[in-house]
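[recover] target loaded
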């Protein structure tokens, strides 16, 4: 069956890499990750955004991993959506679980960041996901719907075509323990139903929902086969050639 939505493969490099390592990644991305059926976007650390943008095939997108909620000012250590745009990058990841849980970002702040990044014209990749204790307490939907509410409140109807959602259960990130295809499908379907009620059936049908959390070359095909999994946000495996297999899983 053809896919309803264009497959999306995101590589979140997190705080990894140096110029030499990045050159190696760019080499295999340009050689093997350009696929008409798959939208590929990589997110290098902020200091390398421009370097990567200049060397990467223009068909591959480049994302910031985070940005603040205003254009400029006294916010030492941060970058703005305007700066990401200024170095010709079109995407930004917002509300990643490491921003939420290591750096203490709130739903409210993430919502404000989504609003601002969209207002300057970036495409945004807001992330949501429950912790292990929340899943075990049966609170997965309660948590992801709460996180999503703070996001959807900040998206205008005409901006939804610049939004791709990433569901990343915290317990699956960097642990080697991925959600099973069935677990991920269940949450993605629940999110789509919820979006249909809270936003519109059109948005629910069109918006891509990515899965993230220990995606590898070994498990990507089974995950990609699920109808509501429209792609991946990949951490560790996006630094390796395994990413090629992951990209291609969307082209089957
Ligand atoms: O956080 C992630 C992507 O944003 C997932 O990380 P891993 O693929 O390393 O588990």
């Amino acid at each position: 069956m053809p896919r309803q939505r264009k497959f999306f493969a995101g590589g979140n490099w997190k705080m990894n890499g140096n110029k030499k390592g990045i050159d190696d990644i760019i080499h295999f991305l340009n050689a093997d990750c350009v696929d008409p059926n798959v939208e590929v976007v990589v997110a290098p650390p902020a200091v390398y955004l421009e370097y990567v943008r200049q060397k990467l095939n223009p068909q591959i997108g480049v994302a910031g991993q985070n940005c603040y909620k205003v254009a400029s000012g006294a916010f030492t250590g941060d970058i703005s959506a305007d700066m990401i745009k200024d170095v010709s990058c079109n995407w930004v990841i917002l509300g990643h679980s490491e921003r939420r849980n290591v750096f203490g970002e709130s739903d409210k702040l993430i919502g404000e960041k989504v609003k601002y990044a969209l207002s300057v014209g970036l495409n945004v990749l807001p992330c949501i996901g429950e912790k292990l204790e929340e899943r075990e307490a049966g609170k997965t939907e309660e948590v992801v719907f709460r996180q999503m509410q703070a996001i959807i409140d900040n998206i205008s109807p005409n901006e939804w075509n610049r939004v791709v959602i990433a569901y990343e259960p915290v317990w699956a990130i960097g642990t080697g323990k991925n959600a099973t295809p069935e677990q991920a499908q269940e949450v993605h379907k629940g999110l789509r139903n919820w979006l249909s009620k809270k936003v519109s059936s059109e948005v629910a049908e069109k918006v891509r929902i990515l899965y993230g959390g220990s995606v590898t070359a070994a498990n990507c095909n089974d995950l990609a086969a699920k109808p509501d999994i429209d792609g991946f946000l990949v951490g560790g495996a996006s630094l390796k050639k395994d990413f090629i297999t992951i990209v291609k899983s969307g082209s089957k």
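[recover] notes: The radius of gyration is 17 Å.
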